[in-house]
Specification:
The chain is built from 5 helices and 9 strands; from the N terminus they run H-E-E-E-E-H-E-E-H-H-H-E-E-E. The protein has 198 residues and is of the alpha+beta class. The protein is elongated.
Length: 198
């Protein structure tokens, strides 16, 4: 296992930890909590799936009408939390948020199973739903519309990238003497590494 102290670049360390989690976690090693807030500071958190992580940031996709998307559009900062219980590790990320490019969103959308693409069209995410029959009817409507040919990406569906300013790695140790290392971007956009008390 790669320890916190062995990497100078936090994304390299994150990729190592995620690769190990892929082997050890029973479900969705790429699951992360994303915390957003309204412009007035009211927080909200939910689970989403990480779809890409590289030095430019951490990417996930969603309906742009969803609560999280609306909060990110009006207050473009977020916090992420990865918790891998089987590894007794977690990673916390704080950063600004930007939309992915249309080309990125198109490419990822095209890679999804057709039923998932139909579901994206059918769901009015975060809006009131009268019953499952209503949702099933919308799924049937769009399945018929796109029965033949490609399913294009809806304009209301895209992705966000959390551009990290701070990444903290936490690793369990005996007697609650846990290892915590935080990487912080300095004014020159280089990473500085510091240790924290557990």
């Amino acid at each position: 296992m790669t320890s916190v102290s062995q990497k100078s670049e936090p994304i390299d360390l994150f990729q190592d930890w995620l690769a190990l989690a892929d082997k050890k976690e029973v479900n969705d090693a790429n699951a992360m909590t994303i915390a957003t807030a309204t412009p007035g500071g009211v927080p909200s958190a939910r689970m989403v799936l990480l779809k890409d992580a590289d030095p430019s940031g951490f990417v996930f996709y969603t309906n742009l009408g969803s609560q999280k998307a609306q909060e990110l559009i009006s207050n473009p900062v977020a916090s992420l939390l990865f918790h891998w219980k089987s590894l007794r590790r977690q990673v916390r990320v704080v950063g600004t948020v930007e939309r992915v490019s249309d080309a990125e969103a198109d490419a990822y959308f095209a890679s999804r199973p057709k039923d998932s693409r139909i579901g994206a069209w059918a769901s009015k995410q975060s809006q009131l739903l009268q019953g499952m029959f209503e949702l099933e009817g919308r799924v049937a409507q769009f399945a018929a519309k796109y029965a033949i040919g490609d399913v294009p990406r809806p304009e209301f569906w895209s992705g966000f990238r959390v551009v990290p300013a701070r990444i903290e790695f936490w690793q369990d140790r005996p007697f609650r003497l846990h290892e915590r290392v935080v990487y912080v971007k300095n004014k020159d956009q280089n990473w500085e590494k510091e240790r924290l008390y557990p």
